[in-house]
Description:
- The radius of gyration is 13 Å and the shape is globular.
- A hairpin with a 4-residue loop joins strand 1 and strand 2.
- It has 1 helix and 7 strands.
- The chain has one domain (7-91).
- The strands form 2 sheets. Strands 6-5-4-3-7 form a 5-stranded antiparallel sheet, with helices on one face.
- The two termini are 12 Å apart.
- The chain has 96 residues and is mainly beta.
Amino acid sequence: MTWPQTTILAYDVHENRDLFFKDTPDGANQIVVGKLGGQAYPMAFVGGNCSIQGFDKEGNEAFWTVRSRPHGERREAWMAAAAAPSSAWHLCSFSV
């Protein structure tokens, strides 16, 4: 995944093609890839300034929430708390 401040691009390096391109008007400050609850496939969770969007492998928005981040809390911990209480879902994360 690559992203400037307000978009994300999912790219398949094996097939050498774009999977999806999405606007994230609230920003794309961090991306975490993982499963939420009992999902069969991982999603890309994109944390903006106050929202979290979850995109499936086709780029469909399958999850969305708004959350205020307490002052001083690290954005990675904020993303994890908004997702699942399980420690097994977190596969990888990227920060801006």
